[in-house]
Amino acid sequence: MALFDKVKAQAEALADKAQQGVAQGKEKIEDLQAKKHLDGLLRDLGEAVHAHRRQGGTEADVDRALEAVDTHLRQSGEAPPSMPS
Protein backbone atom coordinates (compact mmCIF):
# COMPACT_ATOMS: atom_id res chain seq x y z
CA MET A 1 0.00 0.00 0.00
CA ALA A 2 2.88 2.39 0.71
CA LEU A 3 4.16 2.07 -2.86
CA PHE A 4 0.73 2.91 -4.22
CA ASP A 5 0.55 5.99 -1.97
CA LYS A 6 3.98 7.18 -3.21
CA VAL A 7 3.01 6.69 -6.84
CA LYS A 8 -0.28 8.51 -6.26
CA ALA A 9 1.50 11.42 -4.53
CA GLN A 10 4.00 11.70 -7.39
CA ALA A 11 1.21 11.64 -9.96
CA GLU A 12 -0.62 14.40 -8.10
CA ALA A 13 2.59 16.46 -7.89
CA LEU A 14 3.14 16.06 -11.64
CA ALA A 15 -0.47 17.04 -12.36
CA ASP A 16 -0.05 20.16 -10.21
CA LYS A 17 3.15 21.12 -12.06
CA ALA A 18 1.42 20.57 -15.40
CA GLN A 19 -1.45 22.82 -14.37
CA GLN A 20 1.01 25.50 -13.23
CA GLY A 21 2.76 25.27 -16.59
CA VAL A 22 -0.51 25.66 -18.45
CA ALA A 23 -1.45 28.66 -16.29
CA GLN A 24 1.93 30.29 -16.91
CA GLY A 25 1.63 29.66 -20.65
CA LYS A 26 -1.85 31.17 -20.72
CA GLU A 27 -0.62 34.22 -18.80
CA LYS A 28 2.27 34.68 -21.22
CA ILE A 29 -0.09 34.48 -24.20
CA GLU A 30 -2.38 37.07 -22.62
CA ASP A 31 0.61 39.35 -21.98
CA LEU A 32 1.72 39.01 -25.60
CA GLN A 33 -1.79 39.75 -26.86
CA ALA A 34 -1.99 42.86 -24.67
CA LYS A 35 1.41 44.02 -25.94
CA LYS A 36 0.35 43.45 -29.54
CA HIS A 37 -2.83 45.44 -28.90
CA LEU A 38 -0.84 48.30 -27.34
CA ASP A 39 1.59 48.24 -30.27
CA GLY A 40 -1.35 48.65 -32.65
CA LEU A 41 -2.77 51.53 -30.62
CA LEU A 42 0.61 53.27 -30.57
CA ARG A 43 0.94 52.78 -34.34
CA ASP A 44 -2.51 54.33 -34.78
CA LEU A 45 -1.47 57.24 -32.56
CA GLY A 46 1.66 57.79 -34.65
CA GLU A 47 -0.39 57.74 -37.83
CA ALA A 48 -2.88 60.24 -36.36
CA VAL A 49 -0.08 62.60 -35.29
CA HIS A 50 1.61 62.34 -38.69
CA ALA A 51 -1.67 62.98 -40.48
CA HIS A 52 -2.41 65.96 -38.22
CA ARG A 53 1.01 67.53 -38.69
CA ARG A 54 1.64 66.74 -42.35
CA GLN A 55 -1.56 65.81 -44.13
CA GLY A 56 -4.32 67.94 -42.71
CA GLY A 57 -5.57 65.40 -40.16
CA THR A 58 -7.50 66.63 -37.16
CA GLU A 59 -6.46 67.10 -33.57
CA ALA A 60 -9.63 65.21 -32.62
CA ASP A 61 -8.18 62.09 -34.31
CA VAL A 62 -5.01 62.49 -32.25
CA ASP A 63 -7.06 62.93 -29.08
CA ARG A 64 -9.09 59.77 -29.84
CA ALA A 65 -5.91 57.77 -30.42
CA LEU A 66 -4.40 59.09 -27.18
CA GLU A 67 -7.55 58.19 -25.26
CA ALA A 68 -7.47 54.67 -26.69
CA VAL A 69 -3.86 54.25 -25.48
CA ASP A 70 -4.70 55.72 -22.06
CA THR A 71 -7.73 53.44 -21.70
CA HIS A 72 -5.70 50.37 -22.59
CA LEU A 73 -2.99 51.29 -20.08
CA ARG A 74 -5.54 51.92 -17.31
CA GLN A 75 -7.39 48.65 -17.96
CA SER A 76 -4.27 46.53 -18.25
CA GLY A 77 -2.35 48.19 -15.41
CA GLU A 78 0.66 48.55 -17.69
CA ALA A 79 3.14 51.36 -17.36
CA PRO A 80 3.37 53.66 -20.36
CA PRO A 81 6.15 52.65 -22.73
CA SER A 82 9.36 54.60 -22.27
CA MET A 83 10.86 56.67 -25.01
CA PRO A 84 14.06 55.39 -26.59
CA SER A 85 17.18 57.28 -25.59
Helical residue percent? over 70%
Indicate the mean pLDDT. Answer: 90
What's the story with the biggest beta sheet?
none
Global structural class: mainly alpha
Oligomer: single chain
| Molecular shape | rod-shaped
N-end to C-end Cα span: 65 Å
C-alpha-based Rg, rounded: 23 Å
Element order: H for helix, E for strand: HH
Low-confidence stretches: none
What portion of the residues fall into strands of 2 or more residues? under 5%
Count of helical stretches: 2
Would you report the number of β strands? Answer: 0
Structure description:
Helices cover 84% and strands 0% of the residues. The N and C termini lie far apart (65 Å). Helix 1 runs antiparallel to helix 2. The chain is mostly helical. The mean pLDDT is 90. The protein has helices at 2-54, 59-76.
